[in-house]
């Protein structure tokens, strides 16, 4: 076998059996984002894992325990999603609201009701969900302090964000529109 093979060489042979066929190899990736071909073909890799399991049974038990726990958790979530999809969606929504805004879903809904279901800038009707006849509501916040403001429609939320929350930019935009719209 060749000894001075460059990294990323797709023609290098398996270290055990010497096969070069590309379809027999798995592809991995390094931390630098480059892909590479693994050093052993699938068949030899399986043989090596089994031999390692025989030599280190405690490592195999630990790996199997991690897999078992992961599989149990995934099965539980899947079963729960099938049994009560509404409760699952509500729990996910609550967790996302808590994570993104730092408030409970009840407080989120209360703030929305207090605002009357209208955008704070353009006064169009907005809705809490993604679906519905109205535009989805976005809870605006100060990007510097994180303080929550009011609910906006998608367009107004984008407008405030694109203006970098600058009153000067928005005032200049108003003057521009007045100038070109004949007001």
Write a compact overview of the structure shown.
By secondary structure, the chain is mostly helical. It has six helices and six strands, in the order ββααααββββαα. Helix 1 crosses helix 2 and helix 2 crosses helix 3.
Account of the 3D structure:
This protein is mainly α and 183 residues long. Among the domains are: 22-80, no CATH class; 115-181, His-Me finger endonucleases (His-Me finger endonuclease fold, 3-Layer(aba) Sandwich). 50% of the residues lie in helices and 10% in strands. The protein contains six helices and six strands; from the N terminus they run ββααααββββαα. The chain has helices at 42-55, 57-83, 85-101, 105-114, 154-162, 167-181, and strands spanning 27-29, 35-37, 126-127, 135-136, 138-141, 148-152. A two-stranded antiparallel ribbon has the order 1-2. β1 and β2 form a beta hairpin. The longest helix has 27 residues, at 57-83. The relative contact order is 0.06. Mean pLDDT is 83; it is low at 1-5.
Could you state the CATH homologous superfamily of one domain?
Answer: His-Me finger endonucleases
Strand content: 5-15%
What percentage of residues falls in helices of 4 or more residues? Answer: 40-55%
- Count of DSSP-assigned helices: 6
As an assembly, this protein is single chain
Tertiary shape: elongated
H/E series: EEHHHHEEEEHH
State the total count of DSSP E strands: 6
Main beta sheet, described? Answer: 2 strands, antiparallel
